Automatic annotation (TrEMBL):
This is Myo-inositol-1(Or 4)-monophosphatase. Pfam families: Inositol_P (PF00459). Mg(2+) binds at residues 71, 89, 91-92, 211. One of its GO terms (molecular function) is metal ion binding. Gene3D superfamilies: 3.40.190.80, Fructose-1,6-Bisphosphatase, subunit A, domain 1. The keyword Metal-binding applies.
Amino acid sequence: MQTNVVKQLNDAMQTVMRTAREQVLAKMGNKLTVAEKTSRRDLVTNVDHSNEDFLISQIRQLDPTAHILAEEGTGDRVTSMAGHVWIVDPIDGTMNFVHQRNHFAMMVGFYVDGEPTLGYIYDVMANKLYAGGPQLGVTLNGEPMKSPADADLADGLFGASAPLLIQDRFNMQAVVAASLGPRIMGSAGIQISQVLAGELIAYLSYLRPWDFAAGRVLAETLGLVVTTLDGSPVDMLSSGAVLIATKRAQRSILAIV
Ligand code: 2AM
Ligand code: CA
Ligand code: CA
Ligand code: CA
């Protein structure tokens, strides 16, 4: 896409994200309706649904012929990354949203013929909006972000996933042992934003497309790498282990997992 068109879309989407945040904050003043999806650890609330509906309606106005993949199911059935594809996670960290009223994000990723084009991670309570893409760079609340230092695993904090660490999947305990220590937030979006900011050298988790679509765009724009555990490119339409890391940390982690 032409850079001026991407820039216009980015300006419009940042406004959409800020409006979505205001609506979520307003709804947090009312009692939440919480439902279990597949288990007591897999929740969805009325706000997940209303925010998904809002984001989809706004994206449809900006990009009427696009395909939209969204976690809670009100989007399209997307089976190909051809053309314009938007990937939406209306509340990332729903468990935190319900139990902490904090540490959750909203995320949107935009791909054109499979190419990462725009990404948004909004840490709602911290009011930190990470936005941009390869043609524009990444901003945090409008201020350009620099690429994080290319620090190695031994010199940084490692963003872990609770189930993978407890079950020692992918040798995660050895990865943690080789780092300065693990950190676990319960929100893929917030942990990925911490990698963008250089607060973590990596994040490794089992993720679904909406968990990493936005983060991949932003991370790659900042010179970070986003791969599966054999170092190959991620598939935006499937779920699996995804590693978001500095180049150095990625090499060290892939040698351990
Ligand atoms: P969610 O809140 O949007 O569901 C920690 O739970 C992180 O992993 C959150 O970002 C959460 O996103 C995501 N997550 C929760 N359950 C998951 C599952 N079964 N598979 C993949 N990711 C999951
Ligand atoms: Ca969920
Ligand atoms: Ca999620
Ligand atoms: Ca979600």
